[in-house]
Input
Amino acid sequence: KHADLLTFDRFQCSLYQLKQKALNDKEAAASLAAIEEETKAACGGLKGSVLVSDGFFPFRDGVDACMAQGVTAIAQPGGSIRDDEVIAAVNEATPQVAMVFTGQRSFKH
Output
């Protein structure tokens, strides 16, 4: 979404439209590359954000991916048989990431 916002602010079109134009237009391709680089530098605009989930993380890869993008705090219900792996992932994070188990699930099936 960060790249979409930058694209719309600068070119008054969607990121998808810019990508399509970039297929045949070198100037559009250069603009797209610049937006992608800026988005990457900003970690997609997620630096300092907080993740709240209504379902537990069944594996650590979910929190690893979020932390890699700049998430600094996580609230989740817990209850996975692999909670220990998720806790380990958060404890290993640099910079530090906070996590709280709410004990409340909204997503049930």
In short: The first helix runs from residue 2 to 11.
